[in-house]
Amino acid sequence: MSGPDPDALARAEAAEALRTMFADMLAGSGITDYLTASMEIIPVAGGNEVSVYSRSQGRVRIGIIPYFDRLSEPETTTRGPGRPSWTPELFHQRLREATERTRPPHTPARLAPNFDRLDGTREIDPDTLSRLIRRFGPE
């Protein structure tokens, strides 16, 4: 004989905590003409954005409820703090643009002054560009 599913119990507890937090946020918002069944919860970075439909104001964002358990976290993973890394698509796009701006031969040393970096500035070290080409391929 098996007992209750621990994940189902955790989800139920999380849903109840979410309803309680939502009620507190709504009470603090001053909106009184909302439709009871209009609560909308959208996963966003760092939590769940909560909104409600007000008869006078339309859809109103109430706030963000931070994630409070492992079951409410989104399934996507992040790489941690800091700037985003190169993606193959972005690298190849920037490489094509640098190639268009550079006269042949298209060597890393010749492409580097015309290559746009992640921060949007132009010119990259030729050795860095060579490493990126090895990493992502010439396309």
Notes on the structure:
The termini are far apart. This protein has 2 domains: 61 residues, no CATH class; 49 residues, no CATH class. The protein is an alpha+beta fold. It is 38% helix and 16% strand. It contains 4 helices and 3 strands. The relative contact order is 0.10.
Look at the helices and sheets and give the structural class: alpha+beta
Percent helix, as a range, is 25-40%
User: What is the rounded distance between the termini?
Assistant: 58 Å
Main sheet specs: 3 strands, antiparallel
SSE topology string: HEEEHHH
Average pLDDT rating: 74
- Overall geometry comes to elongated
Proportion of strand residues? 15-25%
Low-confidence stretches: 69-78
Strand order of the largest sheet: 1-2-3
Radius of gyration: 25 Å
Q: Helix tally? A: 4
Number of domains: 2
Number of DSSP strands? 3
In short:
This protein is of the alpha+beta class and 139 residues long. The chain has a three-stranded antiparallel beta sheet, covered by helices on one side.
Question: Any descriptors?
Answer:
single chain, elongated, alpha+beta, 139 residues, 3 strands
Topology record:
Elements: H1 6-29, E1 40-44, E2 47-54, E3 58-66, H2 88-101, H3 108-111, H4 126-136
Antiparallel strand pairs: 1-2, 2-3
